Amino acid sequence: MPERLPLVLLPGLLCDQRLWRDQARDLEDIAEPAIPDLTLDDSLSAMAKRVLDAAPDRFALAALSMGGYVAFEILRQQPRRVTRLALLDTSAALDSPQRVTQRLAGIQSLKHGRFFGVTTRMLPQLVHAGHVHGPIGAEVQAMAKRVGGDAFLRQQNAILNRPDSRPLLASIDVPTLVAVGDSDILTPPEDAEEMHRQIAGSTYYVFAACGHLPPMEAPEETSKLLRRWLLE
Question: What tens digit of pLDDT does each residue of 94-122 get?
């Protein structure tokens, strides 16, 4: 039996291991999946160091949203440990001024009140309209509640203080997949297209009728896509 490939799967903001649950299961025959906890630190550098300290010497790296910001930091710290890269629904650019204002408002409201997680009003920003009122929407809300308000504050602080990763893109020289949901509002296809253009030889993929969370919204499609990426 061929040796399985070490695979690190990085979650996004307010996400835990549930985000990548199906892919970790579906890829077990060819990979050794690990889903790090990104809720413990308030800076990308600390998150990346924690991931690197626990990871094998060499590993494939797949990341979604905030996980992509951590992936870029891993590439800044120890690029030669990453054998291949998958960037799902993320961006190399900094937040727009409007997005920064939204993040700061969320932090301030939490400091002065209770953590409500992902509300029904927020769900359409995270998942396709077809998932808002179904089991996927409910699982996204439950996942955010498990992560909790304290971790949310740490993660938002890390995101707000992240560097611009666009200058890093041209130096990425491992097999790279860039994928995005066609209905992703938070990190839209234009962001993915920019990364794809800047990363030489990268593969670009768009999930149809999908929002910001393909591993949960389109689990089988995501697993098949990552299988091809791992075996190419």
Answer: 988 888 888 887 777 777 667 767 888 88
